[in-house]
Fold this protein.
Amino acid sequence: MTTLDDAIDPEDRKIITLARSARARRPGVPEGAAVRDETGRTYVATTVALDALRLSALQAAVAMAVASGAGSLEAAAVVSDSEDTVPAGDLAAVRELGGPSTPVLLAGPDGQLRATITGS
């Protein structure tokens, strides 16, 4: 039996692992994320929950990519307890930099791929 996780590209597995590692370094954060730009560079972040600033992990990772000069995104990954959804604002950030076909991989805390979100 083939699962979603069996066919995952090694580069996509890498950003899931990076997102999972980021989340593990900050106990108690709800999610970790990683994005890969057009040159293969990766950017990793966790949820930012300050009184003056709130960003999801994916928004923070996209912001790091933009601040570092990335021109586009190839893929994004989020590790979360959430079963199968990524908030619309997070998807919008990925789509604005990466385009509508940029996949967003949603994985559980164990690193298992739950869903791949593509399209607008």
In short: The mean pLDDT is 92.
